[in-house]
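Table S2 (text version). Query chain:
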Amino acid sequence: MTKLNQGNIPVIFVSGENLPEAWEKAMLVVWNHGVDILTEYEYPDRPPMSKDATVMVEVSNPFNEPRIHKNFPGGPEDLERYRQEVVNGIHDHWIAPEEGKWEYTYHDRLCNYKGIDQIEYIINKLIDAYYSRRAQAITWMPTVDTQAYDSPCLQRIWTRLLPDEKGTLVLNMNSHWRSRDLYGAWFMNVYAITDLQRVIAEKISAGLKQEIKIGRYMDISDSLHIYGKDFEKVAPEIEKMQRSSYRERAWESTHPAFAAIIEETREKLRKDPDFMLAPLDC
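Corresponding structure-token output:
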């Protein structure tokens, strides 16, 4: 039965120490407190509907271990392929909607928005004035995306530096998403976006010639949802999350097995950048 909330989308905040803990907390709150609502991909004759909420997820230390969740839909190969797609733009050449290929990549929108490299802008802006509130990048193109079948889920990245108690600058990042597949896409999205946060911090550090720490990451989704089509797969995962600590389902990124698969994937991508093409839905 559809849960009613007086016509309002629930607004929820959760906080986790690292990526796996934050993902599990978000999964639990959307599963237990999200409102039941249709999506443009699910219809009344194909129940059940999605669970949906507006959710803010804070990851207080995005590079703290364990950093990898074993049970997200995918594996180390998918994580590395997607990380390189977002951070390095290895699949930008697949943007060709007129040929039935991709309509965008996040890397292209962030680093080549009508010829403007917005990530370079962020880096230079914070080197010039670390306290600036203007260090942001956007993806939405009204001239294109209002007509597109597959428009960007990520809308904006905002960054800001703040000194800690020792005077060391700390890079905070917010990301804003119009729509998000919590089960199928969130973990890979955040794994890649926080790596972009790391890259930005390293380049600012080189420009300022001083240490820049990686601070908290805030993930804001207008619609964070679990699709009805995934309920049968999600239900047993929710049961595990309710029963035991997320640490039972998490890996350190330095785990030998994980590290070996990552290096193997990098070698495959060096030989064939089209290896494992599989765009994420949201």
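Notes on Table S2: Strands lie at 11-16, 35-37, 50-59, 68-69, 136-138, 154-163, 169-177, 180-181, 212-226, 250-251. Residues 186-208 form the longest helix (23 residues).
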